[in-house]
Amino acid sequence: MSKSIAGPEIERLIQLLARVPGLGPRSARRAALHLIKKKDQLFAPLTAAMAEAVDKVRVCSTCGNVDTSDPCTLCTDPRRDGTTIIVVEDVSDLWALERAGAMNARYHVLGGTLSPLDGIGPDDLNIKRLVGRVAEGGVSELILAVNATVEGQTTAHYITDQVAGMEVKVTRLAHGVPVGGELDYLDEGTLSAALKSRTSF
Amino acid sequence: MSKSIAGPEIERLIQLLARVPGLGPRSARRAALHLIKKKDQLFAPLTAAMAEAVDKVRVCSTCGNVDTSDPCTLCTDPRRDGTTIIVVEDVSDLWALERAGAMNARYHVLGGTLSPLDGIGPDDLNIKRLVGRVAEGGVSELILAVNATVEGQTTAHYITDQVAGMEVKVTRLAHGVPVGGELDYLDEGTLSAALKSRTSF
């Protein structure tokens, strides 16, 4: 909006809302208006929730998950099987696998994939900490739940090389994950099936 | 999410984000994760913008627009033609007309349309204040920019009756083919209206 229709505070709110994934310039205006109309039911509670979350959000120093505590809820949950680590590219993949609820293991978030063309090497990812977790012992299986892309598979191979010689079995998700597909978009059934029929890497 | 993956603050953030128009349960998770990742660039500024807006938002007691001042920016702008009032159903319609930038007039937001079936009568809308603005004088034209629905037209007729006898011209938006629109996709009502009010070329 070139000319100011509403006050600068509302204009700024719309501009920032437009940068939230899922919203664009037009839907940001609709969202802002809806928030203003539902001031007590939605706008104020959402603002409070954001203020609380923005202060408390931490990246887990063990697994790379985001949570409000470090180590995170999943790393400290005593009911989880600590002998299995599911390695994912991104927190969104972790959330997708947790929604599928197929395994009660621990996780490790890489924060991306190896991509020499983009200048992303092993040191840019959370790989050293993963190798450390395996070296500390007690881990019998690494499930490489990376995306079925070239970068994902390259990263899987690199990790396999890094833990070669250690007492750990490395597996990967079963085929069933569509080639080129992203975990976050898959249905829970497919994700469960892919986990159950995981194969040796 | 039935079980808690992230901390309760993040879960609550996701739940509230899912109620923002344009986002759903899945995109709310993606949005939350994006906010967390872009903590300094987006999450913190957006939270601050929301906190500022939620406190400052006002409904203009003159025209019903939302703004951070009352009377609003449009009602106090001395460069606007106060003799013409564009009557709209909703603030979103006001914003749409302002983006079009076709007129430099003042506005009046009704807050809905008459709908006896839904129990919405004249007293539930911002009509009395509109009649008052006309009665105060200085207004020569009311443009009824209500939607071309049964409720919109009923509301337009009601307002016309209310200001009958006052020194004010009541007009409505022209019906016709949208600019860039294809005839094939238009409804019969629009086509009939466009034919009836055809203009010389």
Automatic annotation (TrEMBL), chains A, B:
<keyword id="KW-0479">Metal-binding</keyword>
<dbReference type="InterPro" id="IPR023627">
    <property type="entry name" value="Rcmb_RecR"/>
</dbReference>
<comment type="function">
    <text>May play a role in DNA repair. It seems to be involved in an RecBC-independent recombinational process of DNA repair. It may act with RecF and RecO.</text>
</comment>
<keyword id="KW-0227">DNA damage</keyword>
<protein>
    <recommendedName>
        <fullName>Recombination protein RecR</fullName>
    </recommendedName>
</protein>
<dbReference type="InterPro" id="IPR006171">
    <property type="entry name" value="TOPRIM_dom"/>
</dbReference>
<keyword id="KW-0862">Zinc</keyword>
<dbReference type="InterPro" id="IPR015967">
    <property type="entry name" value="Rcmb_RecR_Znf"/>
</dbReference>
<feature type="zinc finger region" description="C4-type">
    <location>
        <begin position="60"/>
        <end position="75"/>
    </location>
</feature>
<dbReference type="InterPro" id="IPR034137">
    <property type="entry name" value="TOPRIM_RecR"/>
</dbReference>
<keyword id="KW-0233">DNA recombination</keyword>
<dbReference type="Pfam" id="PF02132">
    <property type="entry name" value="RecR_ZnF"/>
</dbReference>
<feature type="domain" description="Toprim">
    <location>
        <begin position="83"/>
        <end position="178"/>
    </location>
</feature>
<keyword id="KW-0234">DNA repair</keyword>
<dbReference type="Pfam" id="PF21176">
    <property type="entry name" value="RecR_HhH"/>
</dbReference>
<dbReference type="Pfam" id="PF13662">
    <property type="entry name" value="Toprim_4"/>
</dbReference>
<dbReference type="InterPro" id="IPR000093">
    <property type="entry name" value="DNA_Rcmb_RecR"/>
</dbReference>
<dbReference type="Pfam" id="PF21175">
    <property type="entry name" value="RecR_C"/>
</dbReference>
<comment type="similarity">
    <text>Belongs to the RecR family.</text>
</comment>
<keyword id="KW-0863">Zinc-finger</keyword>
